[in-house]
């Protein structure tokens, strides 16, 4: 068998081990359990959160597979495992920050386990997927050595959390309604889904800005990343304004989503919004 193919199979196997570790971490580091929440209670809100956690880790660790074809097999495996453990820890930390900062006006555990609040679940899952995209971009970058790479990942994690907090405030400003009120007291799934989609879009913008970093000087990196970020935010704001008109020209967005909780409209707009930002990310990420 071709040696390159063997290396890629080993790398894939290591990444799968990381995913298994993420599943165990979710079990032991969070108050949610598969048997009780998913099987006995059949709680879809907890299922959405668990899916977001696993998807975020999967997206993040896929960045660690980039550029490992020519490394020593043992070294590549150890590096992927090390970055995987860090990714799981940062994803769990991101979940805590989401609960304490982004959705600070209510407790996520109560909303998910007691109220089965899908709106809150989509918000939290969106933040975890967004974090996975940011870590993917960081892990796919170029660092002088393994330890500097871990430092860069932690730095991008901090920047990513600041971006998510900023995105939450931006969403409140753009929509002009109280997201926390609608999610906590009205259990508005449509608002939560759109909020989660915006957070995913922020992750796509951040990934485009940082993926493949490390080949330019620090000043060039900062200028490039800042430029992509500014253009991305402008593109996102434009998309948030135009997509409701694309879905239905006569649509009154606030009335449908805020007042009526129209999930059909919310799903369509969320998917179109994420699709547009995927195109942006592909167009603006630097070449490898």
Helix-strand pattern, N to C? Answer: HHHHHHHHHHHH
Mean pLDDT: 83
Please tally the helical runs, counting DSSP H or I stretches of 4 or more residues.
12
Distance between the termini: 27 Å
Label this structure with key terms.
288 residues; mainly alpha
What's the short story on this structure?
By secondary structure, this protein is an all-alpha fold. It has helices spanning 3-29, 34-40, 44-64, 73-102, 108-114, 118-139, 146-175, 179-184, 189-210, 218-247, 253-259, 263-284. It is globular, with a radius of gyration of 19 Å.
Write the layout of secondary structure elements.
Layout: H1 3-29, H2 34-40, H3 44-64, H4 73-102, H5 108-114, H6 118-139, H7 146-175, H8 179-184, H9 189-210, H10 218-247, H11 253-259, H12 263-284
Helix pairs in contact: 1-3, 1-4, 3-4, 3-6, 4-6, 4-7, 6-7, 6-9, 7-9, 9-10, 9-12, 10-12
Describe the structure.
By secondary structure, the chain is mainly alpha-helical. The chain contains 12 helices and no strands. It is 80% helix and 0% strand. The longest helix is centred in the N-terminal third of the chain and has 30 residues, at 73-102. The protein has helices spanning 3-29, 34-40, 44-64, 73-102, 108-114, 118-139, 146-175, 179-184, 189-210, 218-247, 253-259, 263-284. The protein has one domain (3-284).
